[in-house]
Specification:
One of its GO terms (molecular function) is methyltransferase activity. Helix content is 31%, strand content 24%. The chain is an alpha/beta fold. It has a single domain, classed as Rossmann fold, CATH 3.40.50. The two termini are 21 Å apart. Bound molecules: S-adenosylmethionine (SAM).
């Protein structure tokens, strides 16, 4: 549940936002590789290991990407038949994503906004797939329940959430990091069906969660 923000909470959100905006203002952020991760390819195209049981291609449906950056993976999903909505906190990232989607000739609905305040955006869902490539792990802890609730309200029965995260202590003082135990506790009504360590020299993880069928 959302709790009233303290002054320190507001300061933390502002610090995160300013840090992210600076990355995009300064040029190409270090994460903006333009490469779709094999973990998403495996889920969408049905190749490789991971994501719990079953390695067949996921039938295209509706997808919501949280923290889409310049849109590499939203465009990838659209190219594979998905109806995609993608959200990012930084307007410059969304502008670049629009340019890339136009150049690629694919339709992606790109929204400038906060993944923890989805009710303020035109993104009602339901969605069959949520994708988050290191957005949640940078969200201040006091906004994480709101993030989980927003996805839960928009999840189609059995929807999947594929998320890449940095572990605690790996992102400096501004960004908090995340653990598997936290995911289990925070995403009530979802099942954590796969945890695959990332290939980085510090703790990173790919989490796959499945929403309940009710
Ligand atoms: C590490 S970057 C990764 C971007 C993109 N997923 C990629 O891999 O290229 C994290 C992204 O999440 C966005 N972000 C962080 N907090 C957010 C929030 N509360 N709502 C929406 N986007 C957010 C940032 O602006 C940034 O673009």
């Amino acid at each position: 549940m959302d709790r009233p923000n303290t002054g320190a909470d507001v300061d933390q959100e502002e610090a995160v936002r300013r840090a992210l905006e600076k990355y995009y203002r300064d040029g190409k952020p270090p994460w903006d590789t333009g490469v779709t991760p094999p973990e998403l390819v495996a889920l969408v195209e049905g190749r490789g290991e991971g994501q719990g049981e079953g390695h067949g291609a996921l039938p295209p449906g509706r997808a919501l990407e949280l923290g889409c950056g310049t849109g590499t993976n939203a465009i990838y999903l659209a190219r594979h038949g998905w109806e995609v909505v993608a959200v990012d906190l930084v307007d410059r990232a969304i502008e670049q994503a629009r340019e890339k989607a136009d150049a690629a000739g694919v339709a992606v609905r790109l929204l400038h906004g906060d993944a923890t305040r989805l009710d303020e955006l035109d993104a009602p869902g339901p969605y069959d797939l949520f994708f988050d490539l290191s957005c949640y792990c940078g969200i201040p802890p006091h906004r994480r329940d709101a993030y989980a609730a927003g996805l839960t309200r928009r999840a189609a029965p059995g929807a999947l959430l594929l998320m890449f995260v940095y572990g605690p202590g790996t992102l400096g003082d501004t960004f908090a990091g995340v653990t598997a135990d936290e995911m289990r506790a925070r995403f009530a009504g979802w099942e954590l069906i796969d945890v695959t360590p990332g290939t980085n020299p510090f703790p990173t993880f790919w989490f796959t969660l499945r929403a309940g069928e009710a």
